[in-house]
Amino acid sequence: MTGWLASVANPAEIPLLLPAAPGILDLKDPSAGALGAWAADDIAATMRALAALPGRPWLSATIGDHPMRPEAVEPAARRIAATGVDFVKIGFAPDGAPDRCIDALAPLAAEGVQMVAVLFADLWPPDPGCLPIDRLAAAGFRGAMLDTAGKRHGLRRHWDDAQLSNFVCCTRAHNLLTGLAGSLRVADIPALSALSPDYLGFRGALCGGERTAGIDPQAVARVATAFAGLPDLTPQPRPSAPSRS
Ligand SMILES: O=C[C@H](O)COP(=O)(O)O
């Protein structure tokens, strides 16, 4: 089943999301850019606050928007990893040296940090063969998601559903967790879930359209309801054949 990720701008928004039970709470400050980072102290405090919550969502946190240089990306990732957050999300764009950044992050994976690459669909060509998916897997990344750096148009204006399906298949073939995001709306949920990514990510749709506006509980309920109504496509065990006796 495809799950969902909810981006939260500050600790005060978390109680508005928890009743809707997203699988991942993504700590990200949308007013500070596509991958705007929370303060590390706030991430660590949120991890502590939710640690004992039964069935708590996973927590991810972004490292901020950085130029594609290892000396910028690696220390930022290390700083967020030190908070103990479950997943560290790192953005990759084709400009600069994304390959060298990925290689510089491999030691973090070896230390047990679960990193998720965020690949910007409006910056990379719409073909998973052009993305550094092999390299991410070889470096020990846990997942790769496709998102958009610009928020004016949704993901599906940049990549069509066949291209998105290729992305899901390609990342899955590398044993990476797979996510799709980028100004997604409730109306996108059935078609994108049918591609079977591990999760779909939302911010704008949870705020009634404007991602910096703050969480709107009614908009959250619309997203959660759309997921609750999806068919369960998980393969079921076959009933055993009747015995011949
Ligand atoms: O990680 C997911 C993003 O926060 C999605 O934000 P968005 O729906 O505003 O593009």
List keywords for this structure.
single chain, 245 residues, alpha/beta, TIM Barrel, globular, binds glyceraldehyde-3-phosphate
Would you give an account of this structure?
- This protein has a single domain (3-228), classed as Alpha-Beta Barrel (TIM Barrel), CATH 3.20.20.70.
- The chain has helices at residues 14-17, 40-50, 70-81, 98-110, 133-138, 155-158, 161-173, 189-193, 217-228, and strands spanning 3-8, 24-27, 58-62, 87-92, 115-120, 143-147, 177-180, 199-202.
- Strands 1-2-3-4-5-6-7-8 form an 8-stranded parallel barrel.
- α3 runs parallel beside α4 (98-110).
- With 245 residues, it is an alpha/beta fold.
- The longest helix is centred in the middle third of the chain and has 13 residues, at 98-110.
- The model has no long low-confidence stretch (mean pLDDT 93).
- α1 (14-17) links the parallel β1 (3-8) and β2.
- The termini are far apart.
- It is 33% helix and 16% strand.
- Its EC number is 4.2.3.153.
- It is an enzyme of class 4 (lyase).
- InterPro entries: 4HFCP_synth (IPR007565).
- Catalyzes the formation of 4-(hydroxymethyl)-2-furancarboxaldehyde phosphate (4-HFC-P) from two molecules of glyceraldehyde-3-P (GA-3-P).
